[in-house]
């Protein structure tokens, strides 16, 4: 499982020019699910995401997590994070979990995140989404369950 996490001052998701999710200060999470991922990885990654200390304390040091700043989390499914470009310039997606198997893990990740912090919004699995965000910092962290 791969999460590309950005600290944002605001983020939103539109589908067909209609806003379906929005947060102000918080984390925007693009979530890629790979063929060998399981419920264990979803739970582990949700905990790690919410616990990331990427927000500034009173001294300007990144010591606070999203809960501490009462921020939101916007989770967007993104199978393209599992792209394999090792054999050329056209990405292959054989390492991405098929949608019927991936969607329950996406929902589990979102549910686990909701259990750990106050405000959680999601994009729509399988939808063509437009994602808008203001990356604050910029701060961008890539997490993979095999490395956490």
- Regions with little confidence, pLDDT below 50 for 5+ residues: none
Shape: globular
Structural domains: how many? 1
Order of helices and strands: EEEHEEEHEE
Number-wise, the strands total: 8
Strand content: 35-45%
Radius of gyration: 15 Å
Describe the fold and architecture.
- There is one protein chain.
- This protein is of the alpha/beta class and 148 residues long.
- It has a single domain (2-147), classed as D-tyrosyl-tRNA(Tyr) deacylase (D-tyrosyl-trna(Tyr) Deacylase, Chain: A), CATH 3.50.80.
- The protein has helices at 39-51, 99-116; strands at residues 2-15, 18-23, 26-32, 55-56, 62-64, 72-77, 119-122, 130-144.
- The longest helix is centred in the last third of the chain and has 18 residues, at 99-116.
- The mean pLDDT is 96.
Show the helix and strand layout:
Layout: E1 2-15, E2 18-23, E3 26-32, H1 39-51, E4 55-56, E5 62-64, E6 72-77, H2 99-116, E7 119-122, E8 130-144
Parallel strand pairs: 3-6, 6-7
Antiparallel strand pairs: 1-2, 1-3, 1-8, 4-5
Helix pairs in contact: 1-2
Q: What is this structure, in a nutshell?
A:
By secondary structure, this protein is of the alpha/beta class.
Task: Give a quick set of tags describing it.
148 residues; alpha/beta; D-tyrosyl-trna(Tyr) Deacylase, Chain: A; six-stranded mixed sheet; two-stranded antiparallel sheet; 2 helices; 39% strand; globular
